[in-house]
Amino acid sequence: MRLVIKVGTSTLAHQSGKLNIRRVERICRVLSDLKNAGNDIILVSSGAIGMGVGKLNLTSRPKDMPAKQAAAAVGQCELMYAYDKLFGEYNHTVAQILVTGEDIENDNRRNCFKDTVFKLLELGVIPVINENDTVSTQEIAVGDNDTLAAIVAVNIKADLLILLSDIDGLYTADPKTDSEAILISEVNEINDKIYSLAGGAGTELGTGGMTTKIKAAKICTDGGIDLVILNGGCPEFLYKAVAGEKAGTRFVGKK
């Protein structure tokens, strides 16, 4: 299978912005095992700005654009260093691809992007994709790697997109405030009711939330691709999601 896995800032880092070493090690181990099993792995990783905040010992996520870009420039180095080291322990090579909206919207640049990804996969490499936050002000303002992951999945004709988040999946209500909220294991149609279940933004260091994940699911399912939302705190659930077993919330692609 060709798998796209998106990892959010809240999964990668502690609230301080420092790397959550134990969790990231587990994620890289599981992804390495899935690759050893013959799957193509494409990792869409947030976290550059968040990790830059930690590396620079800032007290909070910057508000102004130059500071965000500076944090991203520092954090991206830290992020790729971690991936290179951890995946390297399992004899896997990683490659960094930084993209902007123009790289996807422009036909020639989009084709170049796809050709690069396909060649890296052919060479057995794990592409690590992120927005080019150091130069792309529009993408930072949107801050939506969920949508980026969905666009990547559709363009490279992935079999499955998995979003690792800080929540188990989509609930009937906000589980943080409603003890009777129930996890929805499968969604076959994305309608107004599903959109209404989305809450606000995610953590302070991150910028996503359930709304962006449902929008990403819409892009994927319209393209015939399943999308699964999983809790990144339990990376072993990736095995179940890939096997098609019940895990998190699965949005079923249109066939």
Give a brief outline of the structure.
This protein is α/β, with parallel strands linked by helices and 255 residues long. The protein has helices spanning 9-12, 21-36, 48-55, 65-88, 101-105, 107-122, 137-142, 145-155, 192-196, 210-222, 237-242; strands spanning 2-7, 40-45, 94-99, 126-131, 160-165, 186-187, 226-231, 249-251. The protein is built from eleven helices and eight strands.
Written account of the structure:
The structure is a single chain. The chain has 255 residues and is an alpha/beta fold. It is 45% helix and 16% strand. It contains eleven helices and eight strands. It has an eight-stranded mixed sheet with strand order 3-4-2-1-5-7-8-6, sandwiched between helices. The longest helix is centred in the N-terminal third of the chain and has 24 residues, at 65-88. It is globular.
Topology:
Blueprint: E1 2-7, H1 9-12, H2 21-36, E2 40-45, H3 48-55, H4 65-88, E3 94-99, H5 101-105, H6 107-122, E4 126-131, H7 137-142, H8 145-155, E5 160-165, E6 186-187, H9 192-196, H10 210-222, E7 226-231, H11 237-242, E8 249-251
Parallel strand pairs: 1-2, 1-5, 2-4, 3-4, 5-7, 6-8
Antiparallel strand pairs: 7-8
Helix pairs in contact: 3-4, 8-10
Largest sheet report: 8 strands, mixed
Low confidence ranges = 139-143, 201-208
Number of H/I helices: 11
Shape descriptor: globular
DSSP, total strands: 8
Euclidean distance between termini CA atoms: 17 Å
Give the helix proportion (percent range). Answer: 40-55%
Amount of beta strand: 15-25%
> Structural class, from secondary structure content?
alpha/beta
Strand order of the largest sheet: 3-4-2-1-5-7-8-6
Backbone CA Rg: 17 Å
Mean pLDDT: 88
List the helices and strands in order.
Answer: EHHEHHEHHEHHEEHHEHE
